């Protein structure tokens, strides 16, 4: 990747600035801006996150914000209240306080002598969420946003629930957030009161996964911050960006349909990362694409970006299943409007062990999937690391009802969300159904194309679930994740249906026997006809970035991902261990610019019995350290989730060390009632 170190404007960096909120709370910001901005003011761009600008995201922030500043923008990276070097507490995601703070920061920015008035917001993941949420408040100065890997619906499409089922990502992400929030501000910036602020945080520490598990249906808690509740609240321009390998692709087509403001969408093959260095490739010159967006909306430069098709996506080709893809073959395609009138629905009927355009006489097939179904599913979202992708699906296919179509004779491209309409009967009041659309190669290898899950108690309403009646027949709709994919001649489409998907989702309270009625169940595919104009799409520039600090690796990181089966007690344990953290793959790294040594390690364990999920367990272990000269802060935390049919049980321990001395410790043991989940 090209590293740019010469820019149109010389860049001045302000390592830390305090921005005082109306209630007196100080928020910490790192700022890059043209050296002469006070004499020649520039538009500003704001990014707000809780991930510690001083250390944990330092190496990510520098090349981007420096690049923007070098091209004539004031670029601000803010630590949210209660995180990093900011005062206060961070009590949850996306609280009203966070939105109010962001609005106050926008007011502060526009009052600075280096700001010419127009402001943009951007962010990936958390920063993408709050860019949307702040835009819904319609601050006058906010002209445009770029939201990456985020969602408009916090219940339907976030890391907590999917299809009304509890994701294990709720524990995983919540545990990482739990550890991040437990760290102190840096004494070099915060001053002598850093211990008081640290203890204040620790004494008010929130076990975030428990909060989210207390809201198991789509109630007012999730509606807050879900901009889909009223898309018309957003009036500024929106550029929505994401990747098919990420957990958030569904939100982008939905926002393109729901928003009335100027909007544009870009979906690549990428994981949860910036498109200039994301895997799978191809990476693109995304920093240049951001500049085109900001130049148009903040500098009134008519560069043609809004004359291009609003919906641009990477049409993926088949690849053999693998735990990591460096590159996904395919091509860029675009639609002149969304929803596209060009997309055609094609219906395939699920018959006994087959799938075709004609429905055969009605029959029945039954399944009680082993609780280990899903071990080939990969991660809910990945960051471009080893083992994140879904591998060969044949093992999971063998634990599912499988419906194979005829061999594809002519290339078929789909763009959108495939939907399975199923008629089912179950024998338990709570049951899940998982559907996977796979591409079976001539050699039999099965590649997952897309997938979806549904808690059948939410078949009619996410807000008001209803228990199932044993033996009663239900017709349900299972929408899979949006995707762009080309099935090649000689391949076979396969729909696989199961009742469990571990460790992606937490199991139903009891094993379920599901009867699927064939001949009346079907698969609906969004088939995309060819479009000649795709060949004339403006090519993206090669990736480039600004300069950044290079950490010194003090010890190499270890990464392992294994599945262990105990053939004596029929238990399977899925383990992930990662020491890489955010420091270039090192388990311990030295950042010379701030004379700081930082380290991080993460261990995950997911254990279940082949046929009995009552002993299922998920556990997350984390160890984090920051040290400089005679200062050292270390945090160790463990979170553990188990369940019985009536309750979830979430336990956690937190130990914080000031040097070698124990500074704080606490334990949690929470019993959370299960509500039809």
From TrEMBL:
Source domain of life: Bacteria
Keywords recorded for this protein, A-Z: Hydrolase
Gene3D superfamilies per the UniProt record, alphabetical: alpha/beta hydrolase, Galactose-binding domain-like
SMART domains reported for this sequence: PepX_C
InterPro entries: AB_hydrolase_fold, CocE/Ser_esterase, Galactose-bd-like_sf, Xaa-Pro-like_dom, Xaa-Pro_dipept_C, Xaa-Pro_dipeptidyl-ppase/CocE
Chain spans, region Disordered: 524-558
Keyword Thylakoid among record annotations: no
NCBIfam families: CocE_NonD (TIGR00976)
Keyword tRNA processing: no
Molecular function GO terms recorded: dipeptidyl-peptidase activity
Residues covered by the Xaa-Pro dipeptidyl-peptidase C-terminal domain: 291-546
Identification of the protein by name: Peptidase S15
């Amino acid at each position: 990747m090209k590293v740019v170190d010469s820019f149109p404007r010389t860049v001045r960096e302000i390592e830390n600035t305090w921005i005082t909120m109306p209630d007196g709370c100080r928020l910490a910001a790192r700022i890059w801006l043209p050296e002469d901005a006070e004499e020649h003011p520039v538009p500003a761009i704001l990014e707000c996150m809780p991930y510690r600008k001083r250390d944990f995201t330092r190496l990510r922030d520098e090349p981007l914000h420096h690049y923007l500043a070098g091209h004539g923008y004031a670029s601000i990276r803010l630590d949210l209240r209660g995180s990093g070097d900011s005062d206060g507490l961070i009590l949850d995601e996306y609280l009203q306080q966070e939105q109010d703070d962001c609005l106050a920061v926008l007011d502060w920015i526009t009052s600075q002598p280096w700001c010419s008035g127009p402001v943009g917001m951007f962010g990936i993941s958390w920063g993408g969420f709050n860019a949307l949420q702040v835009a819904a408040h319609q601050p006058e100065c906010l002209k445009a946003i770029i939201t990456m890997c985020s969602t408009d619906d916090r219940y339907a499409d976030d890391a907590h629930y999917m299809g009304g089922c509890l994701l294990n990502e709720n524990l995983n992400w919540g545990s990482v957030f739990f550890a991040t929030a437990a760290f102190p501000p840096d004494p070099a910036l915060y001053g002598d009161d850093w211990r008081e602020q640290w203890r204040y945080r620790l004494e008010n520490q929130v076990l975030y996964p428990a909060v989210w598990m207390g809201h198991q249906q789509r109630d007012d808690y999730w509606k807050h911050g879900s901009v889909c509740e009223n898309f018309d609240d957003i009036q500024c321009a929106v550029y929505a960006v994401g990747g098919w390998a990420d957990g958030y692709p569904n939100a982008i087509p939905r926002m393109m349909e729901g928003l009335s403001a100027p909007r544009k969408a870009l979906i690549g093959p990428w994981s949860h990362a910036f498109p200039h260095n994301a895997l799978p490739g191809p990476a693109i010159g995304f920093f240049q694409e951001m500049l085109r967006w900001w130049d148009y909306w903040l500098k009134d430069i008519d560069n043609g970006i809004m004359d291009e098709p609003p919906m641009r996506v990477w049409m993926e080709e088949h690849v053999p299943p693998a735990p990591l893809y460096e590159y996904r073959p395919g091509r860029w395609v675009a639609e002149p409007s969304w929803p596209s009138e060009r997309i055609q629905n094609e219906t395939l009927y699920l018959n006994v062990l087959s799938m075709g355009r004609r429905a055969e006489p009605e029959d029945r097939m039954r399944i009680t999937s082993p609780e280990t179904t899903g071990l080939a599913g990969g991660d809910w979202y990945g960051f471009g690391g080893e083992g994140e992708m879904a591998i060969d699906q044949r093992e999971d296919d063998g634990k599912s009802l499988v419906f194979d179509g005829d061999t594809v004779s002519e290339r078929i491209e789909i763009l959108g969300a495939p939907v399975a309409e199923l008629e089912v009967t179950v024998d338990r009041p709570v049951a899940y159904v998982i559907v996977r659309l796979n591409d079976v190669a001539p050699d039999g290898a099965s590649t997952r194309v897309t997938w979806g899950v549904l808690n059948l108690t939410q078949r009619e309403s996410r807000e008001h679930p209803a228990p199932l009646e044993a033996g009663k027949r239900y017709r349900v709709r299972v929408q899979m994740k949006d995707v762009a994919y080309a099935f090649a001649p000689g391949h076979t489409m396969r729909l696989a249906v199961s009742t469990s998907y571990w460790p992606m989702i937490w199991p139903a309270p009891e094993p379920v026997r599901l009867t699927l009625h064939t001949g009346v169940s079907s698969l609906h595919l969004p088939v995309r006809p060819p479009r000649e104009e795709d060949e004339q799409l403006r090519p993206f520039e090669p990736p480039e970035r600004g300069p950044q600090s290079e950490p010194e690796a003090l010890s190499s990181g270890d990464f392992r991902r294994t599945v262990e089966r105990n053939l004596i007690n029929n238990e399977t344990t899925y383990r992930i261990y990662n020491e890489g953290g955010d420091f270039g793959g090192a388990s311990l790294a030295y950042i010379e610019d701030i004379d700081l040594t930082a380290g991080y390690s993460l261990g995950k364990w997911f254990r279940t019995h082949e046929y009995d999920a009552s002993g299922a367990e998920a556990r997350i272990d984390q160890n984090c350290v920051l040290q400089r000269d005679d200062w050292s802060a270390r945090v160790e935390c463990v979170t553990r989730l188990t369940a019985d049919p009536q309750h979830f049980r979430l336990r956690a321990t937190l130990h914080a060390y000031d040097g070698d001395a124990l500074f704080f410790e606490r334990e949690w043991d929470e019993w959370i009632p299960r509500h039809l989940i």
